[in-house]
Design goal:
Order of helices and strands: EEEEHHHHHHHHHHHHHHHHHHHHH
Radius of gyration: 30 Å
Distance between the termini: 66 Å
Strand order of the largest sheet: 1-2
Structural class: mainly alpha
Number of strands: 4
Shape: elongated
Strand content: under 5%
Length: 441
């Protein structure tokens, strides 16, 4: 029996017979309809019906407008002018390039509306790259109202034709359920297609699926293999993830030198999480010779860029004199920056400053409030200090039941000081002996 030829529906992505004229899944007709004659709008340049009185894009009256009206800017860059001339004459490559000029702000101001317009013209003519970029504009609302369904439609169109960038982003839409019904197996399918073409982002997304068991059977070894492959291709998030695998001894044997190697590669590409982890390695002497000056420099670099992890750790450096002189006022300054962004570690550290009067006057009320914020986020150190506030009546009325509750919450996370403090309260030792589950907070 002769094998039936199949194709992919460009509207829903399902596999259908190659001779099908209508998709049996989504009901869309697949035959091209004879297009109505069109002409460019003399105002915005979009193609409109030849007998249109009002442009559906710019909403301007166009019935009596001259066909050859020009909206070019006299002082436009010569290279862009030539690109525009070719684009207006229907050159789809030039149309895509003109879109790039506006999208990237190269030799002109950034103008997403113009970028979208030219990407769409190029995409309609079949440019896979323009179709991907058009979908990206729809997905993120750049130059057009955000429309996830249109993003899906254009990503699917380019994906069916083999564009790996589109296949990866189509997988993301299926995984998130944005613009299409959530389907993890289809997400994996499209990630795999893109990965097979060497798309590093797709390889990393596929690794994530294997790591979590999403759309595919969980396989940590395969996740590690794919992550390493993407990292070796220079994909920064994969380099960071691979460094963490080695740093934590997860899936693979712990290897601090390899961790530093990959953290450094990601840090050299500007990844701030990697910079913070590299700074931690220098602080602890893991995989590299201990160097507190380098620790301080790296944390300071990302902290001044607004990175909350860097801000919190820079505060810690000032608080403990790591790579710099002890300066409690500076410590408070940086803890506060991160605490204001709801970072639980910074909230707890700033609470200690208020409780002990380091860099600020003693203020138990503020300390209690900060500990409470950190504790509510599940941070063990914050829970311990909140328990202590209730135990000692600092910033709040003394309440042994609340103290035991919070000491126990921290103790259940392995906090040794909380375990000892719990023993000091009547009935607290028994709570440890029976090893209860974490209380609801």
């Amino acid at each position: 029996m002769e094998e039936r030829q199949m194709k992919i529906c460009p509207y829903c992505g399902e596999e259908i017979l190659a001779v099908a004229k209508k998709c049996r899944f989504c009901g869309e007709w697949l035959e091209e309809k004879t297009p109505k004659p069109q002409r460019p709008c003399p105002i915005c340049g979009e193609n409109i019906d030849i007998d249109a009185d009002i442009c559906p894009y710019c909403k301007e009256k166009v019935a009596n407008q001259p066909q050859n009206a020009s909206n070019k800017i006299d002082n436009e860059d010569a290279e862009i002018k030539e690109c525009r001339r070719l684009a207006e004459n229907g050159d789809y490559v030039a149309q895509g390039k003109l879109g790039d000029y506006y999208f990237q702000g190269e030799k002109t101001d950034i103008n997403y509306v113009e970028a979208f317009k030219w990407y769409k013209k190029s995409a309609v003519q079949g440019s896979l790259r323009a179709q991907c970029l058009l979908a990206y504009c729809y997905k993120n609302g750049l130059g057009v109202e955000k429309n996830s369904k249109e993003a899906y439609r254009w990503y699917l169109k380019a994906s069916v034709e083999g564009a790996s960038f589109a296949q990866n982003d189509l997988g993301i839409l299926y995984e998130s359920g944005e613009g299409v019904k959530q389907d993890f197996e289809k997400a994996v399918k499209w990630y795999q297609k893109a990965a097979d073409q060497g798309n590093a982002a797709a390889i990393m997304n596929l690794a994530s699926c294997y790591s979590r068991g999403v759309g595919v059977e969980k396989n940590e070894q395969e996740a590690f293999r794919l992550c390493k492959k993407a990292a070796e291709m220079g994909w920064v998030s994969a380099q960071l993830a691979l460094g963490r695998f080695y740093f934590n001894g997860q899936i693979v044997a712990q290897n601090d030198k390899e961790a530093v190697n990959w953290f450094r590669k990601a840090a050299n590409q500007g990844n701030e999480d990697a910079i913070c982890l590299l700074a931690q390695c220098y602080m602890e002497g893991r995989g590299v010779e201990k160097n507190h000056d380098e620790t301080f420099r790296l944390f300071s670099k990302v902290a001044h860029n607004g990175n909350v992890q860097g801000q919190c750790n820079l505060g810690y450096c000032y608080d403990h004199g790591i790579g710099t002189d002890v300066n409690f006022v500076e410590a408070v300054k940086w803890f506060r920056k991160a605490a204001d962004k709801n970072v639980s570690v910074a909230q707890s550290n700033l609470g200690e400053c208020y409780e002990e009067g380091r860099g600020v006057p003693v203020d138990f009320d503020k300390a209690f409030d900060l500990y409470n914020k950190a504790a509510q986020q599940g941070f063990a150190e914050g829970q311990y200090h909140l328990g202590k506030c209730y135990h000692l009546g600092h910033g709040v009325e003394r309440n042994y039941n609340e103290a035991k509750k919070w000491y126990l919450a921290a103790a259940n996370q392995g906090h040794e000081q909380a375990k000892e403090a719990l023993k000091e309260i009547p009935g607290g030792r028994a709570m440890l002996l029976i090893n209860p589950l974490k209380p609801k907070i």
